Amino acid sequence: MNRLLKLVAMEVHRLRLIFAGMIGMTALVQIVALVWAIYDEMRMWETYKSTHPELALQPLSMQEMIHHISSVVTFTIWLSAFVMGACVFAIWYRDWMGRSSFMHRLLMLPTNRRHLYVAKVVAIMLLTLAYASFQFMLLYVHEGIARLIVPSDRWELSLVMDAARTVEELSIMLPPNGWQWAIHYALALIAVCVVFTGILLERCFGRLGIVYGLLYVASCAALVALPVAFQYEITFLYPGEIQLLTAALCLAVLGVSLWLGLRLVAKKITV
C-alpha cells in the first residue's frame, strides 16, 4: 500500500502544473466575468432610475449573477474537461516519450506492476474531484465578491447550490444529492478505466492494437448506452428495471476493463 501511495503521489506531482494552470484559468476568467457583469448591472440601475424606477429597485441574487455569466462558466468547465481528457492520454504516453523511456524505469520498480495502472486511475480521479471541489469553493468566492460590490439593500440572499443549478455543467459537476454524485463520478471512473485499457491494447499490440483499442472503447460505450438508447423499444421492462440493467452493464464494463487493463500491465506491456 505504501508503494502504491508513493506512485499516486508521483503521478499527481507530475500533473501539478497542468492542474494549477487549469484552476488558475478557471478562477481568473470567472471572477473577471462576474465583476464585469455586476458593474454592468449597476450601470443599468443608474440608467433606469429616472425612466424605469421599478426595474432599478429589483435586487440582485447569486443565482441571477451566475446565470448572467453562464456562458463563461460553461466555457471554463468544458476547457478544463478537455484538459483532463488530454491528461488521460498523456499520463500514459508521456512515459514512452523521449530517448530513455521513463516507462522502462517504472516497470523495473520493486512493486507489483498492477500498481502502475491503479495509481494512474486514482491520480486522474483525485484531480477530477479536486477540480469539482475547487469549483464549489469558487462559488462562495463569487458570492463574497458580489456582496462586497453590490450595496446591501440591493442584494438578495440565495443558496449557492441553487445558483449552481442555473448552469447545466455545474449541476452535473456538483449534483444536488449524494446518490447522483456517486452515479456521475462512477461513470467518470468507468470512462477513465475504459480509455486506459484501450491505450494499453494499443501499446501492447502495436498498429493492430490501435484497432483493438478503438473497437474496445466503442464496444464499451455502445454496451452502456444500449438500454438508454432503446428504452422506448424495450417494452417488456419497466423503467426501474432498465436502470438496473444499465447499472449492471456499467459494472460489467468496469470489471472487464479493470481485469483486462491490470492483466495487460502485468503480462503484456513492453517498452
Structure characteristics:
single chain, 271 residues, mainly alpha, 1% strand
Topology:
Elements: H1 2-14, H2 16-51, H3 53-56, E1 60-61, H4 62-68, H5 70-93, H6 102-107, H7 114-149, E2 155-156, H8 160-164, H9 168-173, H10 178-229, H11 239-268
Parallel strand pairs: 1-2
Walkthrough of the structure:
- With 271 residues, the protein is mainly α.
- It has two domains: 174 residues, no CATH class; 94 residues, no CATH class.
- Helix content is 81%, strand content 1%.
- The protein has eleven helices and two strands, in the order αααβααααβαααα.
- The chain has a two-stranded parallel sheet with strand order 1-2.
- The longest helix is centred in the C-terminal third of the chain and has 52 residues.
- The two termini are 25 Å apart.
- The relative contact order is 0.11.
- The model has no long low-confidence stretch (mean pLDDT 82).
* SS summary, helix count: 11
Summing up helix and strand content along with how strands pair, one would put the structural category as mainly alpha
Shape assignment = elongated
Q: Report the order of strands and helices.
A: HHHEHHHHEHHHH
- Kindly report the average pLDDT value: 82
Rg over C-alpha atoms, rounded to the nearest angstrom: 23 Å
How many strand segments? Answer: 2
Termini separation: 25 Å
**Low-confidence runs:** none
Question: What proportion of the residues form beta strands (DSSP E)?
Answer: under 5%
User: If strands are numbered along the chain, what order do they take across the biggest sheet?
Assistant: 1-2
